[in-house]
Amino acid sequence: SGNVRWDARTSTYSTRTSRPTSKRTRNGLFLVLSGGLRVFIATDTGREITLLSVVSGGCCVLNTLDSAEPGDTMPILQASSDAVFAYINIVALRPLCAEAPVVEQFLRSTAARNVQKVLNNIEYYFFHPLRSCIARVVLEKADAHPEDGFARITHEEISHHLGTTREVISRELEGMRQMGLLQTGRGKIYVLDRSALESMANL
Question: What's the whole-model pTM score?
């Protein structure tokens, strides 16, 4: 585990290891071999909002880095759990695309799907009630590790997903607890009424 090395093909990272992208990070393909990847942006004051989450076996295409100008917002990549990632930069991908058009088609379709997921997340975060967003995050985390019987997430991590503060999330979770929807613990949230949470999340 440790800091992200952009010149490596594969690397292992511990939970919540993160690294801002930079000019050293060229456009390319980022594959999640195990664990999970969170792509987010952050403000100078420490507020964050998740743009995209990628689970084990998935991938994302970084395709805005080479054209980024000073002052442009740059994504930050974070291991959402202990993870192994593989990164193939654009220099290595170009000859593959030239030899096999299916590779270029895969990259284009993956990039398009990534953009659509970002748009879907932005639409959900901005146009749904905060409590609906919290319900969605909790259910997604619980489903990521169904063997646990709970969602592995803290109040602060939920706030980072949704671009708000821990205090606001704690207040909303307490309201949901009083409704009998969930039970909170240290770094854990137990789903008590899944159907009600799904309805709240519009799932």
Answer: 0.81
